[in-house]
Amino acid sequence: MALSQGRLGKYNPEKPTENRITDIGPRHFWDFFPPVIQKNYGKWAYHDILEPGIMVHVSETGDKVFTVRCGGSRLMTAENIREICDIADKYCDGYVRFTTRNNIEFMVTSYEKVQELKKDLLSRKYISGSYKFPIGGTGAGVTNIVHTQGYIHCHTPATDASSMVKAVMDELMDYFTGMTLPAHVRISMACCLNMCGAVHCSDIALLGIHRKPPIVDDNIDSICEIPLAIAACPVGAISPAKTEDGRKSVKIKEDRCMFCGNCYTMCPALPLADKEGDGVTILAGGKISNRISEPKFSKVIVPWLPNNFPRFPEVVATVKKIIEVYAANARKYERIGDWAERIGWEKFFELCDLPFTEHLIDDYRLAYDTYRTSTQFKFTGKAWEVSRAAGGIDD
Amino acid sequence: MEFKPKRPQKDLKYDELRIYTDEELHNYSEEELKNFKLKHDIPDLDELEKGPWPSFVADAKREALHRKKLADDRLMIDKDVVDDLLGQLQLSFDDGETHWKHGGIVGVFGYGGGVIGRYSDVPEKFPSVAQFHTLRVNQPASKFYKTDFLRALADLWEYRGSGMFNLHGSTGDIILLGTSTEQLEPIFYDLTHELDQDLGGSGSNLRTPSCCIGKARCEFACIDTQDLCYEITTHYQDELHRPAFPYKFKIKVDGCPNGCVASIARSDMSLIGTWRDDIRIDQEAVRAYMAGDIEPNGGAHKGRDWGKFDIQKEVIDLCPTGCMALEDGQLKINNKECNRCMHCINVMPRALKPGRDTGVSVLFGAKAPILEGAQLAVLTIPFMKAEAPYDNIKELVEKVWDWWMEEGKNRERLGELIQRKGLPKFLEVIGVPAAPQMVRHPRTNPYIFWKEEDVPGGWKRDINEYRQRHKR
């Protein structure tokens, strides 16, 4: 048993199926559970968050497991993994876990070890000063931002991911290492409408979008199946056309395009990325938990902000502002969406000092479901603007 | 309780598997790292080394240095691959556009999924990332690891790939970022033969199923999420590795309605643990919470002074169904009215526990926007038992797949097909009766699609007979 070396290792291209192993699935989870987890599987009685990022789970058997949760950047190197393993070997008998939100969890069975581990983790910094393993991400705070690939590896992004997340988390550090919010706030980031991270039900969602219709490549007939490209458009904005020299092509009805990018996914001859066109949309008020209120979608609250690499100051400031206004106004246990619904979205925009534009009124499918069909509303500055414009009031 | 894997698991020992020696692993000093310059100017990325949050740039730089100091024959992918990756990222910032080409069909023999081809559109500037393919590796359920496995994986990927990972991708897989076409088969060979580990899904197939932490470390889990996830993953290997579907299909398992893997928002089939008997109450612990002896909500609100715990305000009044009350100092729950939202249990986990008669609620059709807009999953099966070998769940999955493969259009997710054909049609396909639990409220339009057999006498009528009663 050893990992292979040499250009092709133990793989023989002459006989590709010889001794081939396929379809074995993942390693079995039981084998990777620390002994305390194996012993107390299904027997956990309760948990307590001792301090931000540090939890104790207590079993019916009396056993305890202490977890120290650390934020991590989702993009990690072999060097980083080795350092995580060094820590896990030193304190956790060689076991470690990752969370769905890209945190790293170290588990130990004594409180003394928690203290040593905590000291060790917080002492580890990159030469430029960033923490390698900041402790936090539990309870009524902000946990790690889940995100997608962005410019690091994706062919359709409208913005970058790792850099935006780094910029936002730098600013929200106190909310990661603290539990001062009314409820937890889940922030998610996706770099295009494909939403590989499915961010559409997050308390705050950051989403890369395009704003220019696709360019039609002259060679489209030799690059992709034209009928497929036409069929790819969910709003019928693409139709057949001929080039000046008589080759088959397509034309774009630009006023129909909603910039989803599906045409580009189906046909590389229809690129739509653009430095000025692309940017960030912010959505808020979604959740996936069934707790108290039903799961719900996030709503678009900022239609577009510029891709200001690498620190996205406009995005960072908006996210921070929403969280601060929410923290100051919401009730205990109230998620951002529940708070906005209780006070009314018109108040949300007023309190957060966010401009409300026509881009925030739905004009896509099922838009009518979002229109107010009632006189139950609250007066805000925006309401007086309408009254003035309609000649309803003088001042 | 102990789980037996379907096949014996190899006991992995890093010292037997390893590629690099200790000297090779510790081949640079702090001083060298401080003075280290990449081959490209990356001013915006340098900026991202600042600030308290872990910097992926600082991390990548140490990988770049480590690679540079290894001997030429100790790497199968160019030493400069991380330099070029960061260089291309800087160029993408400058241009405001990605520099990865669209498409690229590569894979390992016999699989259609698990590998994503990726090529740079500026290979002359960044030759080491000219080919930069991804492998998706099927993560172990709930993402627990032994360090022997992780260290071996790090060696394998540093040797035959870029050394850059995502831990983890959004679907849950371990993502190996960046290798050449030539190295795909040797990597797959070592993954399966040495690390006892398979690839995950990509393309129009079953994507790698994932689950929450479940009974491994959570008192709320109603079902064995890992076991169910592992069983589905291994049972459907063919569907995971050989694309035969109209588009992707995601299955995710949440242990309770808190939904920590977000199955309700991002899986075509969402299995959520629940119970159908009564919430278990420990009245003594209820009193302890009321007396302030135990912190509410597992201590989640410790960072701020919210005042003394008030059971009326924080639990009873927030119950969405109003099914709770305090009577003579005892907490009473009218379980018939409970909708199992988890709030009371979350606030007082030492006093309240889910019932013991557990199973799953099954919801279908969640997805992100493309194509028809975002959808949350629709509650379809209010309750079904979820016990190994989960034959009832597999039967249900297969009915859904048969219909979707027959009727679904290219790139049409299940949720979109259900919209196009209507939920009643979907219910007919899976053979369950309609129930008010499936809708928020009954339809508001009376445009009911009656079928001929619904109406006495059928639809065929004689115009002459009609005219005998009504002149033209």
From TrEMBL, chain A:
<keyword id="KW-0411">Iron-sulfur</keyword>
<dbReference type="GO" id="GO:0009055">
    <property type="term" value="F:electron transfer activity"/>
</dbReference>
<dbReference type="GO" id="GO:0046872">
    <property type="term" value="F:metal ion binding"/>
</dbReference>
<dbReference type="GO" id="GO:0009337">
    <property type="term" value="C:sulfite reductase complex (NADPH)"/>
</dbReference>
<dbReference type="GO" id="GO:0016002">
    <property type="term" value="F:sulfite reductase activity"/>
</dbReference>
<dbReference type="Pfam" id="PF01077">
    <property type="entry name" value="NIR_SIR"/>
</dbReference>
<dbReference type="GO" id="GO:0018551">
    <property type="term" value="F:dissimilatory sulfite reductase (NADH) activity"/>
</dbReference>
<dbReference type="Pfam" id="PF03460">
    <property type="entry name" value="NIR_SIR_ferr"/>
</dbReference>
<keyword id="KW-0004">4Fe-4S</keyword>
<dbReference type="InterPro" id="IPR011808">
    <property type="entry name" value="DsrB"/>
</dbReference>
<dbReference type="GO" id="GO:0020037">
    <property type="term" value="F:heme binding"/>
</dbReference>
<keyword id="KW-0560">Oxidoreductase</keyword>
<dbReference type="InterPro" id="IPR017896">
    <property type="entry name" value="4Fe4S_Fe-S-bd"/>
</dbReference>
<keyword id="KW-0408">Iron</keyword>
<dbReference type="InterPro" id="IPR005117">
    <property type="entry name" value="NiRdtase/SiRdtase_haem-b_fer"/>
</dbReference>
<dbReference type="GO" id="GO:0050311">
    <property type="term" value="F:sulfite reductase (ferredoxin) activity"/>
</dbReference>
<keyword id="KW-0479">Metal-binding</keyword>
<dbReference type="InterPro" id="IPR006067">
    <property type="entry name" value="NO2/SO3_Rdtase_4Fe4S_dom"/>
</dbReference>
<dbReference type="GO" id="GO:0000103">
    <property type="term" value="P:sulfate assimilation"/>
</dbReference>
<dbReference type="InterPro" id="IPR017900">
    <property type="entry name" value="4Fe4S_Fe_S_CS"/>
</dbReference>
<dbReference type="InterPro" id="IPR045169">
    <property type="entry name" value="NO2/SO3_Rdtase_4Fe4S_prot"/>
</dbReference>
<dbReference type="InterPro" id="IPR036136">
    <property type="entry name" value="Nit/Sulf_reduc_fer-like_dom_sf"/>
</dbReference>
UniProtKB/TrEMBL annotation, chain B:
<keyword id="KW-0004">4Fe-4S</keyword>
<dbReference type="InterPro" id="IPR017896">
    <property type="entry name" value="4Fe4S_Fe-S-bd"/>
</dbReference>
<dbReference type="GO" id="GO:0018551">
    <property type="term" value="F:dissimilatory sulfite reductase (NADH) activity"/>
</dbReference>
<protein>
    <submittedName>
        <fullName>Dissimilatory sulfite reductase alpha subunit</fullName>
        <ecNumber>1.8.99.1</ecNumber>
    </submittedName>
</protein>
<dbReference type="InterPro" id="IPR045169">
    <property type="entry name" value="NO2/SO3_Rdtase_4Fe4S_prot"/>
</dbReference>
<keyword id="KW-0411">Iron-sulfur</keyword>
<keyword id="KW-0408">Iron</keyword>
<dbReference type="GO" id="GO:0016002">
    <property type="term" value="F:sulfite reductase activity"/>
</dbReference>
<dbReference type="GO" id="GO:0050311">
    <property type="term" value="F:sulfite reductase (ferredoxin) activity"/>
</dbReference>
<dbReference type="InterPro" id="IPR045854">
    <property type="entry name" value="NO2/SO3_Rdtase_4Fe4S_sf"/>
</dbReference>
<dbReference type="GO" id="GO:0009337">
    <property type="term" value="C:sulfite reductase complex (NADPH)"/>
</dbReference>
<dbReference type="GO" id="GO:0046872">
    <property type="term" value="F:metal ion binding"/>
</dbReference>
<keyword id="KW-0479">Metal-binding</keyword>
<keyword id="KW-0560">Oxidoreductase</keyword>
<dbReference type="Pfam" id="PF01077">
    <property type="entry name" value="NIR_SIR"/>
</dbReference>
<dbReference type="GO" id="GO:0000103">
    <property type="term" value="P:sulfate assimilation"/>
</dbReference>
<dbReference type="InterPro" id="IPR011806">
    <property type="entry name" value="DsrA"/>
</dbReference>
<dbReference type="GO" id="GO:0051539">
    <property type="term" value="F:4 iron, 4 sulfur cluster binding"/>
</dbReference>
<dbReference type="GO" id="GO:0020037">
    <property type="term" value="F:heme binding"/>
</dbReference>
<feature type="domain" description="4Fe-4S ferredoxin-type">
    <location>
        <begin position="329"/>
        <end position="357"/>
    </location>
</feature>
<dbReference type="InterPro" id="IPR036136">
    <property type="entry name" value="Nit/Sulf_reduc_fer-like_dom_sf"/>
</dbReference>
<dbReference type="InterPro" id="IPR006067">
    <property type="entry name" value="NO2/SO3_Rdtase_4Fe4S_dom"/>
</dbReference>
